[in-house]
């Protein structure tokens, strides 16, 4: 006789096998390598020399600006995306005619069909001297500088990450039972109030998911600050590109990367705990 | 007609020539009706006949295409739902999933201006919980509640602001039979306790008959008949109503003779049957299509050898029992008669003892007195 539970256990093992192997070799192993590098030294001609020292970590304050920028622009960009994405998602999920809905949703994704690099180049032109500033000049507003400013970086972030924020919110609003709003109105709740009492709390899981996606990806962003920030706004991502590709200081780069991973782990788990506590817990997980 | 309605002081809800269209669909078609204060009123009808739309017109979720709606003597045209003194129990309850049981019930209180004090609200919520026999469940989550409990929460939530009218859209449809019966009794008791108008939507005729003071039978957006359960049962206006309220045997034919209150029909096969003219029905004249309606409990069943005189009836038809359902105090027989097809007979126990019970396949006579037969419009 075949032991049923044993057979099941085997099957589970077999099915999870490929995932486990992938996880170990593609995620854990590189991270271990980076961690080992971070305790090493830079050889004179660049690259890595084995060693065990904390020097790289003591050297971190030299990149303080990058950390500061990342840790302020990532939440700021997330918040800005949220504020822009929410009304859009709300409009798509609740207001728009069923006929147009699909078309508009596709329009939200279309930019994703070309690479962020190319789209960011377009913004260089738009925000640069021949773009919006020259239009402003035309109507009499002179001397406006947009490119290579923090504003340009935020614009780039909102543009690049908007779909990631719109979709989770759209989904949570789309599945919101419209009868709940009728029930609220029936009980004396004016429409504006019922938005804050019903719609907003019930779209919380979507907002939480969107914010997390955008925040995590923003922590590693380097393209937008490099292109639109003109070297003034410098993220950790830029530091890493510089350290690994330009100055070939692998150990220091590794230390910066490991620190970034730790910061992310801490903030994301804090955030998860906060968001989980707030959400209803019913059948709505964060992702 | 409308002037007359206007003079009644105790009118709580009034529809005046109300129509509601959704594109090509006429959901409510020129309805005028009046619901008195403190009444238990039901909208009854098959799916899609406009019951929910009628309720939503009262709640304010829909505005009539034409006609007027009044609540407590004032027009509510253009008044949004949150400003109407009515509350609704939704078909699937529509409880707020992100709030506890107590928060759901207290929702209406929190919308009041000025907002009552915290302790005052807590007290009222506790009283409401007690009213629906859910004390101690205040801090529970909505999805932890069973169907019956959710129904009670919805009821308590809708009643907390003491509306003048409570609207109930098939509130018991999702419950099983036993629980449904219990909740029907609870609803009735509650209505007497709080003394406000209840307007119930249902397509369960038993539910409507057992609970309501007045029932409005709807058909394709129109009011077919409005009256007390007894009126609808005893004096239906037409075949549709008789068929919808209780079980009825129909014999269709053409009116051949009208004399006083008695109308005689001739069936296709040339048989004649007569019955009383229902006072609610429009006058019928020879040549009209009509039907004789006989309630199964007013029919008698006897052994094959019994004649009309033996059974003390005017009509006796012979037939064969096709099916028999024992219902405790009654037995229901389906008899295939030779000339009018299948007939349903409900025979009470005390008569059963007379003929020692019949079984499927037995030849029997069924009979009735002409005075209990109603002649109705055949529509
Ligand atoms: N918002 C709407 N848009 C278009 N048509 C509608 C709308 N609401 C109702 N209708 C139509 O109006 C008619 C009456 O609908 P209503 O919901 O009032 O029926 P009902 O009697 O409550 O039926 P049920 O017993 O199935 O709930 C139906 O034909 C329905 O399709
Ligand atoms: Mg309905």
Give the helix/strand layout.
The complex is a heterodimer of chains A (287) and B (379).
Chain A: H1 4-38, H2 55-58, H3 64-95, H4 98-109, H5 116-127, H6 132-138, H7 150-174, H8 178-186, H9 191-202, H10 204-219, H11 223-228, H12 236-246, H13 250-278
Chain B: H1 2-6, E1 11-22, E2 25-36, E3 40-44, H2 51-59, E4 66-71, E5 74-75, E6 86-89, H3 101-110, H4 118-131, H5 147-159, E7 165-169, H6 177-194, E8 197-202, H7 205-211, E9 214-219, E10 222-227, H8 229-234, H9 239-244, E11 249-259, E12 262-266, E13 272-277, E14 289-294, E15 300-303, H10 308-311, E16 315-326, E17 330-337, E18 341-348, H11 349-352, E19 363-368, E20 374-377
Helix pairs in contact in B: 3-4, 3-5
Bound molecules: adenosine-5'-triphosphate and magnesium ion.
Describe the structure.
The complex is a heterodimer of chains A (287) and B (379). Chain A has a single domain, classed as Orthogonal Bundle (MetI-like fold), CATH 1.10.3720. In chain A, 73% of the residues lie in helices and 0% in strands. With 287 residues, chain A is mostly helical. Chain B folds into two domains: 11-234, Rossmann fold, CATH 3.40.50; 241-379, OB fold (Dihydrolipoamide Acetyltransferase, E2P). Chain B contains eleven helices and 20 strands. Chain B has helices at residues 2-6, 51-59, 101-110, 118-131, 147-159, 177-194, 205-211, 229-234, 239-244, 308-311, 349-352; strands at 11-22, 25-36, 40-44, 66-71, 74-75, 86-89, 165-169, 197-202, 214-219, 222-227, 249-259, 262-266, 272-277, 289-294, 300-303, 315-326, 330-337, 341-348, 363-368, 374-377. Magnesium ion (MG) binds at residues 51-52 of chain B.
Number of helices of chain A: 13
What proportion strand of chain B? 35-45%
Q: In order across it, which strands form the biggest sheet of chain B?
A: 6-7-8-3-9-10
Q: Report the end-to-end length of chain B measured between terminal Cα atoms.
A: 25 Å
Rounded radius of gyration of chain A (Å):
24 Å
Point out poorly predicted stretches of chain B.
Answer: 1-8
Instruction: Kindly state the number of beta strands of chain B.
Output: 20
CATH topology value of the largest domain in chain B: Rossmann fold
Structural class category of chain B? alpha+beta
CATH superfamily of chain A: MetI-like
Shape of chain B: elongated
> What is the approximate shape of chain A?
globular
């Amino acid at each position: 006789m075949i032991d049923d539970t044993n057979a099941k256990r085997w099957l589970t093992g077999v099915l999870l096998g490929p995932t486990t192997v992938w996880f170990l070799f593609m995620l854990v192993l590189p991270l271990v390598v980076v961690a080992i590098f971070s305790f090493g030294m830079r050889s004179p001609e660049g690259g890595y020399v084995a060693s065990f020292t904390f020097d790289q970590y003591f050297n971190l304050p030299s990149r303080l600006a990058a950390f500061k920028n990342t840790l302020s622009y990532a939440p700021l960009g997330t918040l800005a995306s949220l504020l822009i994405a929410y009304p859009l998602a709300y409009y798509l999920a609740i207001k728009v005619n069923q006929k147009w809905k699909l078309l508009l949703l596709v329009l939200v994704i279309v930019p994703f069909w070309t690479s962020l690099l190319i789209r960011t180049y377009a913004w260089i032109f738009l925000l640069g001297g021949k773009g919006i500033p020259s239009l402003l000049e035309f109507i009499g507003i002179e001397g406006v500088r947009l490119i290579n400013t923090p504003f340009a970086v935020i614009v780039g972030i909102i543009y690049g990450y908007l779909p990631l924020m719109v979709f989770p919110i759209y989904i949570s609003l789309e599945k919101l039972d419209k009868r709940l709003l009728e029930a609220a109105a029936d009980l004396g709740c004016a429409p504006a109030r019922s938005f804050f009492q019903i719609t907003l709390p019930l779209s919380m899981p979507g907002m939480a998911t969107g914010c997390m996606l955008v925040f995590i990806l923003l922590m590693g962003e380097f393209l937008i600050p490099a292109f639109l920030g003109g070297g003034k706004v410098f993220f950790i991502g830029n530091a890493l590109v510089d350290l690994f590709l330009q100055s070939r200081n692998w150990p220091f780069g590794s230390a910066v990367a490991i620190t970034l991973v730790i910061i992310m782990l801490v903030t994301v788990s804090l955030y998860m705990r906060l968001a989980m506590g707030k959400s209803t817990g019913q059948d709505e997980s964060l992702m | 007609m409308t002037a007359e309605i206007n003079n009644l002081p105790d009118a709580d809800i009034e529809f005046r020539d109300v129509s509601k269209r959704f594109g090509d669909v006429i959901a409510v078609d020129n309805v005028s009706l009046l619901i008195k204060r403190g009444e238990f009123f039901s909208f009854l009808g098959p799916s899609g006949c406009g019951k929910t739309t009628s309720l939503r017109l009262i709640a304010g979720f829909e505005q009539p295409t034409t006609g007027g709606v009044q609540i407590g003597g004032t027009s509510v045209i253009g008044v949004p739902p949150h400003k109407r003194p009515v509350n609704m129990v939704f078909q699937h309850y529509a409880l707020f999933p992100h709030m506890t049981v107590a928060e759901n019930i207290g929702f209406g209180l929190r919308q009041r201006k000025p907002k009552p004090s915290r302790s005052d609200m807590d007290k009222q919520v506790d009283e409401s919980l007690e009213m629906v026999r859910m004390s101690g469940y205040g801090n529970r989550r909505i999805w932890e509640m069973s169907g019956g409990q959710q129904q009670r929460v919805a009821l308590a939530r809708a009643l907390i602001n003491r509306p003048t009218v409570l609207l109930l859209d098939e509130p018991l449809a999702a419950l099983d039979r036993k629980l449904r019966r219990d909740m029907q009794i609870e609803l009735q008791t509650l209505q007497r306790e709080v003394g406000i108008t209840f307007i119930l939507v249902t397509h369960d005729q038993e539910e409507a008959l057992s609970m309501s003071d007045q029932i409005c039978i709807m058909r394709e957006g129109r009011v077919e008949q409005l009256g007390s359960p007894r009126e609808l049962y005893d004096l239906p206006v037409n075949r549709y109503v008789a068929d919808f309220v209780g079980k009825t045997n129909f014999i269709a034919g053409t009116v051949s003779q009208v004399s006083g209150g008695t109308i005689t029909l001739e069936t296709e096969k040339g048989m004649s049957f007569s019955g009383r003219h229902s006072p609610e029905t429009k006058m019928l004249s020879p040549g009209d299509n009509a039907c004789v309606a006989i309630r199964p409990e007013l029919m008698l069943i006897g052994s094959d050898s019994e004649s009309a005189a033996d059974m003390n009836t005017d009509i006796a038809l012979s037939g064969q029992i096709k099916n028999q359902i024992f219902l405790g105090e009654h037995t229901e027989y389906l008899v295939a008669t030779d000339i009018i097809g299948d007939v349903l007979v409900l025979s009470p126990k005390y008569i059963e003892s007379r003929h020692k019970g019949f079984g499927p396949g037995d030849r029997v006579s069924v009979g009735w007195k002409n005075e209990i037969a109603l002649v109705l419009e055949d529509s």
